[in-house]
Design brief:
Length: 173
């Protein structure tokens, strides 16, 4: 499994990232600092709980934090729900012990207004009796210049992503 939180580097499609392991259940890792002992780290690894991403609900798009500032905006359009499992990993990133803990998590696909660029951001979520797994209150549905590596969207997906941004965020693109 490759390490990283970004979408497919060359072309983002229907989340067909090469980062996915052969079991189609893990997508990325998130290193935890301060947990080093004898050449090992503790990392969270995301495990999907569904085969396909879901379009984010309107309420997530409208009620979540919208980052402000100058720069290109990226809009949350699809989400994967899963578990973040914490493992002890060796220097190659391979799990050698664990999982030690687990917590609900989501991976969100953010796309530019024109649908041409995208990034996947993993975050911690919360369990809700009424709604299942939902983002935390500080989750942002609109990012400005995300810190993670941004990839190019496959040409055949751009129109669909552009339409989702228009529908969810009322953006004239």
């Amino acid at each position: 499994m490759k390490r990283g939180n970004s979408a497919e580097k060359s072309a983002v499609g229907r989340w067909s990232a090469p980062d996915r392991a052969s079991d189609q259940r893990s997508m990325s890792t998130d290193a935890r600092t301060g947990q080093k002992t004898s050449g090992t780290n503790r990392e969270f690894q995301f495990r999907d709980q569904h085969d396909e991403p879901a379009i984010i609900p309107d309420t997530w798009a409208q009620q979540a934090v919208h980052e402000s500032g100058d720069g290109e905006r990226f809009y949350a359009v699809e989400v994967r729900v899963g578990l973040r499992l914490e493992f002890t990993v060796d220097h190659t990133g391979q799990p050698i012990e664990g999982p030690h803990t687990d917590e609900p998590g989501i991976q969100t696909l953010y796309v530019s207004a024109d649908g041409g660029r995208a990034v996947v951001i993993e975050s911690t979520a919360v369990r809700s009796d009424a709604d299942g797994v939902v983002p935390r209150e500080d989750w942002a549905s609109v990012l400005v210049e995300p810190a993670a590596e941004v990839g190019t969207v496959k040409a055949e997906r751009r129109d669909a992503y552009r339409a989702l941004v228009r529908e969810l965020y009322e953006v004239d693109n």
